[in-house]
Design goal:
Elements (H helix, E strand, L loop, with lengths): L2 H10 L7 H13 L7 E7 L2 E8 L5 E9 L13 E3 L2 E3 L7 H16 L6 E6 L7 H9 L4 E7 L8 E6 L1 E10 L14 H12 L20 E9 L9 E10 L5 H11 L4 E7 L4 E2 L5 H14 L4 E5 L6 H4 L4 E5 L3 E2 L7 E3 H17 L3
Parallel strand pairs: 3-6, 3-7, 7-15, 8-14
Antiparallel strand pairs: 1-2, 2-6, 4-5, 5-17, 8-13, 8-15, 9-11, 9-12, 10-11, 16-17
Helix pairs in contact: 1-3, 3-9, 5-6, 7-9
Amino acid sequence: MNLINTIEDLVRFKTITGNAAEIDKCLDYIAKSFEGTAADVKIERFQNVSPVIYIANNKSMQQDVLILGHIDVVAATDDMFEPKIKDGKMYGRGTLDMKSFAAVAMNSMHYVLEHQLPIHFAIILSSDEEQGSKSTHAFLERYSQLTAKVVLDNDVGGDITKIINKCKNPVFVKLTAKGLAAHGSTPWEGLDANEMLMKTIYQLRKFYPYFDVNGGAPENTWIDTMHVAKINGGEVSNIISSQAEALLDIRLTETSSLEELENNLKACLASGVEYKIVSSSTPVVMTEDNPQIAAYKKFAEQVMGCSIEFQQIGGATDARLFAQKGATVIMHSGTGEGMHAAGEYVVVQSVKDLAQLQIEYLKSLRK
């Protein structure tokens, strides 16, 4: 297959999360690219959940290597769905996140099939990653027996000279405050739910300090963080708010537990405020001396002709679902900027390098 043409074709599909018609067209395009090959291709559909495409060179549910990714993108203007290449960069929605790397996965599968590499290899591409990856969860519930020794995760970073070896645990917490309504001119007759929320958040800052662009990053960024993702309370200007809610986005390192977080929450709650853990995950931590990661890093340095460093990020990865089963997760992506922004782009050469690297790595696993 032609890698660059395939990326351009994928970008043209307006697969904004929830756009079922365009998602179906894109999945059909991917499936058709494997017609006439020995690939086992499944487009799995679920009730009230977006579909997933699964491609494998075997019928087994025990894979040597699995690539995990997605085809959905965030909203963008129409012109961003017409890819443009300028000065070695391809611009367009999804070029970095992550249709370029979905195409790389397809390219790797075609190579494995054409050269009949004796490895068990599979790809999972979901269609709602930008809104929680319910489709990936549904797929793995349906095929709970699916395992992989190594998972290649290309949906991270944005610098091909970096391999991500740590991701944090994202925990979303809902705070609910119940106050007592009163006229704004007599606040002593009421109980302001907004104030109760602010007091709670202020107390939490003792454990999770506030950072912004003006103050700059801390010396050590591998720390627990918290930001107030959403806050809402009150109805009109002259009435003391009787109710308020806030959604907190807390990112925990591998040394912090959910139990410790809950203890901190309980210690900081103002009277009348309750909390609920909306969702939580697990951090993904891979040691630098892991044999598979060390081998992959060696191939990367050979392909790139430069040293490759390890890096940690605050985001999460769907690959955690396989890490929990004991898989080695290799988090590595091409180079680009503007993820989710108007100027999103990927460096074309980095995509070609990643494609070559994946093939060299897969070749090395021949039994």
